[in-house]
Amino acid sequence: MTSESMTLGTATQLDVFEDLRRRVDTRLEGVLDEAEAEAARRAKDAVETVVQVRDLTLRGGKRMRPAMLLAAVECVVEWKTLAAAVVDTSCGIELLQTYLLIHDDWMDGDTVRRGGATVHVSLAKRYGDEHLGASAAILAGDFASAMAQDLALSHNVPKGRVFDVARAFIAMQREVVLGQTLDVLNSSDIEAIHDLKTGSYTVRGPIALGHALAGGSAEQWAALVAFANPLGVAFQLRDDLIGAFGDEKETGKSAASDLRQAKMSAPVRWALERLPEDRKSELRAVLGTDQYVRAQELLIESGAVEGIERRIDELEAKALAALESPALRREGARLLARLAAMMCKRKK
Amino acid sequence: MTSESMTLGTATQLDVFEDLRRRVDTRLEGVLDEAEAEAARRAKDAVETVVQVRDLTLRGGKRMRPAMLLAAVECVVEWKTLAAAVVDTSCGIELLQTYLLIHDDWMDGDTVRRGGATVHVSLAKRYGDEHLGASAAILAGDFASAMAQDLALSHNVPKGRVFDVARAFIAMQREVVLGQTLDVLNSSDIEAIHDLKTGSYTVRGPIALGHALAGGSAEQWAALVAFANPLGVAFQLRDDLIGAFGDEKETGKSAASDLRQAKMSAPVRWALERLPEDRKSELRAVLGTDQYVRAQELLIESGAVEGIERRIDELEAKALAALESPALRREGARLLARLAAMMCKRKK
Fold it and tell me: Which helix (H) or strand (E) holds A205?
């Protein structure tokens, strides 16, 4: 499971993040329309692939990674001086997310994403063949990956910073793919999964992109990374709680999907370390089955929920402390603090 | 099927292409060793994925796309003045090829590649599970894609040209993915497949990268693209003949794989347009079965082989004519002419 959504503010409040969200959505619509038109002209039979990328991207979440990128830029310079580049590189992150979600959902056999059918499910239905649908879905992901690079390194990025932005964008990909590999193989190296998968491309990656785009200093980077790393772990822990206890209506994903897939997520690991032997065996037996309600009871009994909530609070405090650095502009630090609070308290 | 190999010269001749091939292989070994070490340190359970990328890349062919890139650079400036960048961007193309081959082979269900097991087959065997093997293979491709970007846009590329090199590298990806989508869906739009899939990333893409790397002019680009486009079609036609008549020992791929997969390749299409009705029905019946020898006989009977050989000769002549442009350095034009001859006459 790759998680992605959260609440960035209330509907009545048109602030900087809401402004960014609108700009990103408008730009995504524009480039996806162009891509669809190009496919219609040059590869008519492949249009449906692009349509799937378009639909999944545009029914996307709250554009939280763009908010993180913008806040990092704001720690270095006023983001409005780089607005077009901030929007384009943000679109690059969102398209990267589309690519990863499409591949991920097929690997995990997930059928629901962002409140609609996953791409491999849609395409298998359309072509009446499961393997063909999966193949076209993998290619839809590959196409989104190419589009992501196109936007992340667009003509709006200051020419002297393209190299640094590319480095950040590529490092994020290398890390998240290794992290996802560990996840798919159900590795017990949970910390590596947290760091590489979620930490990397949810927090550290967007912040690294913002820092590169704004031409930040080494001192600014040190402060930003000291913020990003604990927050990335906190985000993943929250995600694991949602993956164990969230319901489909709220998350747009299958309920308790991590439990039904027997993922070695943080609460499961917590419980397996602390429950008495008989309960431990029971938990092992119900993981990966439809008896996820019993698995949830056992997790609660083990104290996993309070324990992990406490750990999230500690990590958030650590992240906020890093923002005290005098190297960072206060305007940016305030935005990052707000995002940290939202990420640690979200319900989906 | 994605094809890739050809002969670039005899073993006794250590010329510019052989020199490049050795430099590219050495550099690929270095970066793949580093990637493996990084995975061992940060994502131990994912090492096998990187090992698979390493093995497939290093048992790679004749490095024909790098040769094409180098020749295009040489049309603009002496390639040795940009040697490190030529090598790195060449490695980027080779890793892109690894990425595309891994995904492609899984989609096509191919079991043999470059004389070894395909990545999804190896990994399915290793993990004892077909879906897990396929998932890890898709991720191996995704990892190769990130590495490809890393090399194509390496620190050796002149900073002022990173943006242009990125454009060429991304355009190639967008095109080849659309082309592969048409191919997988067995689209009847053969010309679009030729142009987008093979033309794009076998000839036009490497040449565009070389042109961007060397900082070539618009006039030079016009001459290079007039060379690349007919050659790309000729390459694909040769590929289709090999896909229908090649044997596994020579090509490192399953014999007559296109016929067994009932691909609407150029010779099949030729035959279906020209054979009498009864033969046409017979051909349709044997395509996609093990009776590929009968399919081959029917193709020969239709005149497909001579007809397509003739067309390849015409396209080669057209490509060579474009090299007469005074905008191109003679040293480079000579190298491109040599590559065109090799590509049009290859047996694998």
Answer: helix A205-214
**A163 vs B145, B162, B173: nearest CB:** B162
How far is A159 from B163, CA to CA, in rounded Å?
Answer: 7
Q: Please, what is the Cα angle at B120 between B114 and B125, to 5 degrees? A: 105
Residue A113 has phi, psi (to 5 degrees) of -150, 130
d(CA A88, CA A80): 13
- CB-based contact, B170 to chain A, within 8 Å: yes
Chain A residues touching residue B91 (CB < 8 angstroms): none
Q: Do B174 and A136 count as a contact with CB atoms less than 8 A apart?
A: no
pLDDT at B227 over 50: yes
* Structure-block tokens of residue B237: 């036609």
More confident call, A49 vs A4? A49
**Closest by Cα among B206, B207, B199, B201 to B224:** B207
- Res A13 pLDDT > 80: no
Assess contact for A198 and A64: CB atoms under 8 A.
no
Assigned token pair, A198: 């979620």
pLDDT tens digits, one per residue of A198-225: 788 889 999 999 999 999 999 999 999 9
> Rounded to two decimals, what is the model's pTM?
0.89
Q: Is B45 on the interface with A (CB under 8 A)?
A: yes
pLDDT at B263: 83
Tokens read off for A258: 């991590």
Q: What is the ipTM of this complex?
A: 0.89
Class of CATH domain B16-345: mainly alpha
Is residue A252 a contact partner of residue A348, using CB atoms and an 8 Å limit?
yes
Pairing mode of beta strands A112-113, B112-113 = unpaired
Size of interface A-B (CB pairs under 8 A): 157
Mean pLDDT of chain B: 92
Q: What is the pLDDT of residue B298?
A: 95
User: Checking phi first, is residue B14 left (phi over 0); if not, alpha (psi -120 to 50) or beta?
Assistant: beta
- Token readout for B265 is 């390749």
Lowest mean per-residue pLDDT among A3-12, A54-63, B38-47: A3-12
Taking the C-alpha atoms of residue B319 and residue B225, their distance in angstroms, rounded to an integer, is 9
What is the pLDDT at residue B336? 97
Which residue is listed with tokens 């997310």?
Answer: A97
Amino acid at A162: V
pLDDT for B11: 44
Contact A191/A54 with Cβ under 8 angstroms? Answer: no
Residue whose C-alpha is closest to residue A212's, from A92, A345, A297? A92
What gap in Å lies between CA A201 and CA A189, rounded to an integer?
Answer: 18
Q: Looking up tokens 């001459």, which residue turns up? A: B223
Residues of A in contact with B46 (CB under 8 A): 178, 181-182, 185, 187
Residues of chain B contacting A181 with CB distance shorter than 8 Å: 43, 45-46, 49, 136, 139, 143
